[in-house]
Amino acid sequence: MKSVLNKINTPLLILLIIQQSHAQQSIDTQSPVSEVFQLSVELMADYGSLSRFYAIKNSPERRERFKIFFRDYLTKLEKLPFDELSTSGKVDYLLTKNFLDNKLFELSVEEKEYAQLSKWVVHGEPIYELEKQRRRGKHMDGSIVAGQLNDIFKSLQETSIELKKENPAFSRALTKRAEGIIQGQRQALESVYEFYNGYDPQFTWWVTKPYQVLDSLLDQYSKLIKAQVDLSTLPEDDGSGIIGNPIGREEIIRQLENEMIPYSPEKLIEIANKEFAWCDAELLKASEEMGFGDEWEKAQEKVKQSFVTEGYQPEAMLTLYNESVEFLKKNDLITIPPLAEETWRMKMIPPERQLISPFFLGGEVLQISYPTDEMNHKDKLMSMRGNNPHFSRATVHHELIPGHHLQRFMNNRFNSYRFYRTPFWTEGWALYWELLLWDMKFPQSPEDRIGMLFWRMHRCARIIFSLNYHLGKWTPQQCIDYLVDRVGHERANAEGEVRRSFTGNYGPLYQIAYMVGGLQFYALKKELVESGIMTYKEFHDAILHENSMPVEMIRAILIDQPLKKDFKSSWQFYER
Question: Are 281 and 363 in contact (CB under 8 A)?
Fold first, then answer.
């Protein structure tokens, strides 16, 4: 099938062919797996086996084994006849290669950092050898092992003295790597000791005390290493108490390329500002309808005051869920398996978790953020105001159906061999539905529109504050103030959002993935649905059936795009 983007002389004929093809696919229970299926399944199975066997992260043994592993699979991949593959097969080929190349890059960084730290961590390498023998259950002479551990202990004591004397200044990355190496050595030591302790009386008698004193010294040494960080490489606490890790422009660009986003960070900020300007205009319209003119803050404040009476938040969220699913069905937008409707669950987010997640979390379990009786009065009101029904109207369907719950439900059932997890697909899809349902008049009142606009502004703000932070231009406190002043966040919720963004174990690009991924799906909808090539239902079902991957690759499959082996991302998806 030719690409719908190619110049053709018979557009009507091509349109009919594509429509017929997609109609046939909608009849099939699942489109056939690609020619890379078996390799992908073996790759992930082998990766899992090796990860469990070589479990000590940052160890030279693990690193060298995985370098061989990833290179071997690149060789296997190269043997596939790329030009003869289907479009889906070519997509799998490119994404598998991308995965392997990125893993080798990460190992090269690890190797370089390990070499820089070698003088300070080499004392622990004999522990790796003990763990290597332990894995196969070799009988160990306890007296010999005790002597080895004692030798390591003495070497580590000497290294500690030298470290204090030389007082080297490590970059933050090197400090983190050193801590990881030492923790790996402790993990290997514990693995050896726990395996034999109690089962081999001779081993236990000899090794228990040397194990305890060495483990304690390794713990102390880890803290000593942590104290060697070059303070000039650490962001200062600006009063927010949030100390993240800005990665810089070069690494942002590398990660964007890896995610197949062909825009610079500066261009993405520009896009976010354009989307924000659209939100501003719509916000003023809603404010005027509510009688507040251009004082949108007052209109938003009235919406916040609509919070649910204590104890009734879960029921209110169920009502919003039912309304959104009824809307999807009424407009025949997507296939919703009955089991997906039946099996989602609810839980409440604990107070301590709300410091990082002041709003919903979702998936098969809808996690509701709402105050408990133990919170102080101010925090209770901020949580209730920030989770009012009009704000939540844009997030219940984001978290459940057709968002994260339905995504994961379908991921487990269609093309599940695909392992290309990316937030631009995961969060982008859920955000796309906020854009689509706005267009389809899902918000029923100006209050609803203000609620949905709050989240849309929030996603624009995420691009702006997170990229400016990682570019080294903004501090966490500036990010918090921006969310409060520009979006209308409650301050505690803004602090939780920024803390989550920079210290919550999310990747540096995660927060931009919502709006950027959503705009990608939105552009693809224009290309395939608004042109008449696919219905909404065909389009949405097809996306979920292909499973997670960069959105540009979803596009390549759906339009049957010709792909080359040296493919580089180039899709300019944004227009406004």
Answer: no
Report the number of distinct structural domains present in the chain.
Answer: 2
Helical spans, DSSP H, in 227-291: 249-258, 265-289
Token pair belonging to 515: 């709006």
As separate numbers, helices (DSSP H) first and strands (DSSP E) second, the chain gives 25, 2
Which pair of structure tokens corresponds to residue 439?
Answer: 């267009």
What would the two tokens of residue 322 be? 């039912």
HSE-up (13 A, CA, CB side) for residue 245: 14
Which structural domain, as residue segments, surrounds residue 202? 36-234
Neighbouring residues of 166: CB distance < 8 A, sequence distance ≥ 6: none
* Reported pTM: 0.89
- Please report, as a single letter, which amino acid is at residue 556: A
Instruction: Report how far residue 475's alpha carbon sits from residue 43's, in angstroms, rounded to the nearest whole number.
Output: 41
Q: What is the DSSP letter of 170?
A: B
Please tell me whether residues 281 and 420 are part of one structural domain: yes
Which of these, 180, 169, 128, lies nearest to 152 by C-alpha position?
128
The CA distance from 519 to 270, in Å, is: 14
Backbone angles phi, psi at 368, to 5 degrees: -100, 130
User: Which pLDDT value is given to residue 102?
Assistant: 97
- 554-560-563-567 Cα dihedral, nearest 10 degrees: -20
Give the percent of the chain with pLDDT over 90. 76
